[in-house]
Amino acid sequence: MNMTVTDVANLAGVSQATVSKVINNYPTVSADNVRRVHQAMRQLNYQPMPRKRIGSTLPLETVAVLIFHGNQFYDYRHSFFRMLRSIEAAMRQKKMDMVLAHVSSVDDLPEIVRRRQVSGLILQGRNPNDDILNFIQGIPCVWLSSHHDASGHVLLEGNESIGRLAAEYLIGRGHQRLGVLNAMGGNPVLDLRCRYFEFIAQQGGCRCDALIGRHGESWVHDEDLDLALFEQQVAEQVDAFMALKDRPTGMFIPLDLQVAMVYRLLDQRGLRAGRDVDIVGSDEEKVALIGLNPRPATINVGPRAMGERAVQELCWRIEHGSADERIKVTVAPELVPGE
Q1: At what angle do helices 16-23 and 5-12 cross, to 10 degrees?
Q2: How far is CA 70 from the centre of its chain?
Q3: What does DSSP say about strands 141-143 and 96-102: parallel, antiparallel, or unpaired?
Q4: Which CATH class is domain 61-158+304-333?
């Protein structure tokens, strides 16, 4: 009697799709399932039909990385591109192909996604429209954000931990008058960092002044970043800091691009960052910080770990199919001391 893929799947205790992937050397099958399928094939003396191939190229699974936001700051953030490079390297190691696209409507989806010929999706950003979410429904996915309607696994930067690390760093350096400065209030990621910084500061018995502008949503569009306008918005908060009668001696600024501007703006007003006010930033944007003296402390949000873990989680979902359980993974940030 001729054995079939169904027979192998039943004996191995896996799906027929998993058997097919093992036969065709797909990289996303767990080592345990590969062993079980091969054992079942030997036990049943199952011989798969030879697969037609071009040359010696093994089949590649293709994953699309879709960027939903139109926030220009991501074009200037080295940490964002470190995360993308980490995703690419992890996929290359697993012999997977990657397609990258910035998407604001269904029409922007890559053709391979529109034809549903991808094995999975890695999604970054927030507020995709319902048409996109409906279109990609059923494709295994991992979100690199806290998009609240996300199905599938979710990987998060540890934004609460970023705020905590910044506050504990400044408190540990003896500061009792703290402040948080952010021109991009309304950005949910930065708002969360700021709120948690304030909470930890107050829990530590410190006074904390919040110097928050409301310009976060003004940067969510597709035009180039207007650095002069951005500096003007940061300057509003620096002037508010200067106007305080009892100024903070320790300041958290939740984005290193703002840190570099604050250094320049304080210098114009006769204060020196690192001497008159101790600053800690976030995201370890070395390009923004490299020219600052003294170089401030910052927080590494783990972009490489985020990228690697995203590929691991997606491979799990591809292997196991749709799952009712939604898994949230937070990558722990690390403090990088200043000079």
Answers
A1: 110
A2: 15
A3: unpaired
A4: alpha beta
CB 316: neighbour CB atoms within 10 A? 16
Of 77, 67, 85, 99, which Cα lies nearest the Cα of 257? 77
Across 46-55, 67-76, 189-198, 319-328, least confident range: 46-55
61-158+304-333 and 159-300: identical CATH topology: yes
> What are the residue ranges spanned by the domains of the chain?
5-44, 61-158+304-333, 159-300
Task: Find the farthest-apart pair of alpha carbons in the chain and give their distance in angstroms, rounded.
Answer: 90
Architecture of domain 159-300: 3-Layer(aba) Sandwich (3.40)
**In the block, which residue shows the tokens 């927080």?**
299
pLDDT in tens, 273-305: 989 999 999 999 988 899 999 999 999 988 898
Residues whose CB is less than 8 angstroms from the CB of residue 15 and which lie 6 or more positions away in sequence, other chains included: 9, 321
pTM, two decimals, is: 0.75
